[in-house]
Amino acid sequence: MCESQELRSVTVRLAAHEETALWDALMRRYHYLGLTRMPGQALKYVATTGDRWLALIGWSSAALKCAVRDRYIGWESERKLSRLLYLTNNVRFLILPGVRMKNLASRILSLNTKRLSNDYQSVYGHPSFLAETFVDLSRYKGTCYKAANWHYLGITKGYSKNGRYYYENGNPKGVFIYSLSKQAITLLTSDFLPAGGTIMSDKSRLALTEIPVEGLKEKISAIVDPRKRRGIRHPLTNVLSLSVAAVLCGARSYIAIAEWASYLSRDTLLRFGCRRKAPSEPTIRRILQKIDVDSFDRAIASWLLETLPKVTAVAIDGKTLKGSGDEKVHLLSAVVHKEGVVIGQTRVDRKTNEITRVEPLFQGLNIEGAVVTGDALLTQREIARHLVEDKHAGYCLTVKDNQETLRDDIEALRMEAFPP
């Protein structure tokens, strides 16, 4: 077998449970650093050709502190602590004695990094977005990492960790990183975290299994597809239901939605109607920008009301959208108190105000038996009448000192001991 054929026959796989003792013994004997405990979430790989072991490669949790890496990613300290899980560190790489094959090391790194994120997903329940390694430049030049397209960031400050404390070791190391995802930096600094079938935002966590996908697809099936019929690969209901589920699970951008969908298992994608693969970010973006927003909003609001436990309290809240330019788009929203879920929203035109948009906001929403809360601006006789008589709901509205007559009437009733 010629050298190029032999190189192509190399495979990289996880070491089987019964092989780990041999893996440890070989690493301990032949690697110049030996082998101590691999910290955190460790994976052990074997590079083989046929039954012959060629090399061993080990991964573990990323280093807690590395200044050049953290600057490259653009991490804040709090964000780093919640994202460090999605980095992995190549702590050991050993070509076994007697193995001589040109370009073998870079070939093994390439094969390993292609499967690394999926293996972390399978073993530890989350993907990995970025790989790092620290090379002793007094011994090696990091040639195999450069050949495998790893990016050199610079050198460390030359400190080692012993328990809770750091000490200067006098031996700074070269830092190399490799992106395991095209959007690695975005994912490591964004507001959502992918992990298994779940996306977790910094403030909330929602399991995909909690989302009734079938009911969601039924609600949005009536929305008109704005695309031409020819060449459609992803039906509209599939793309919209995936997007809604992704947002409920914490995704906050088109890229985040696409990344979230790309990590779903085949069985989960089938729940959404995707028989091949998830739609791409450009597909998701084009569809969401073209659909009838009002129809989509009404469908989702209706679905949420049916999905959530009985709604007992709803807040009316007005907000001006960030990034809406000189026009300053202002929305009036109905938000469920406990879950913090928006069940309806309507645009407030410049020529009017929030008061006139309350009835359109609740049009088509079943809030019977719920208590609606709002600020003093919405403390209006007609709004209270609409909520009680038309929607069969209650209200708890704020009264300020500038509404003197109403305030005096409330004081005259002496309702201090009466619960609102």
Would you give the CATH topology of the largest domain?
A: Aminopeptidase
How many whole angstroms does the radius of gyration measure? 29 Å
Provide the CATH superfamily of the largest domain.
Answer: Gcn5-related N-acetyltransferase (GNAT)
Estimate nothing, just give the exact number of structural domains. Answer: 3
Which helices and strands, and how do they pair?
Blueprint: H1 3-8, E1 11-14, H2 20-30, E2 43-49, E3 52-61, H3 67-73, H4 77-83, E4 87-95, H5 104-124, E5 130-135, H6 143-147, E6 151-155, E7 159-162, E8 165-168, E9 174-179, H7 184-189, E10 192-195, E11 198-201, E12 205-207, H8 213-220, H9 236-248, H10 254-262, H11 266-271, H12 281-290, H13 293-307, E13 313-320, E14 330-336, E15 342-347, H14 358-362, E16 371-374, H15 381-390, E17 394-397, H16 404-412
Helix pairs in contact: 8-9, 8-13, 9-10, 9-12, 10-12
How would you sum up this structure, described in words?
The protein is 35% helix and 23% strand. The radius of gyration is 29 Å and the shape is elongated. The protein has three domains: 3-188, Gcn5-related N-acetyltransferase (GNAT) (Aminopeptidase, 3-Layer(aba) Sandwich); 207-304; 308-412, Nucleotidyltransferase, domain 5 (2-Layer Sandwich), CATH 3.30.420. It has helices at 3-8, 20-30, 67-73, 77-83, 104-124, 143-147, 184-189, 213-220, 236-248, 254-262, 266-271, 281-290, 293-307, 358-362, 381-390, 404-412, and strands at 11-14, 43-49, 52-61, 87-95, 130-135, 151-155, 159-162, 165-168, 174-179, 192-195, 198-201, 205-207, 313-320, 330-336, 342-347, 371-374, 394-397. It has a seven-stranded mixed sheet, with helices on both faces.
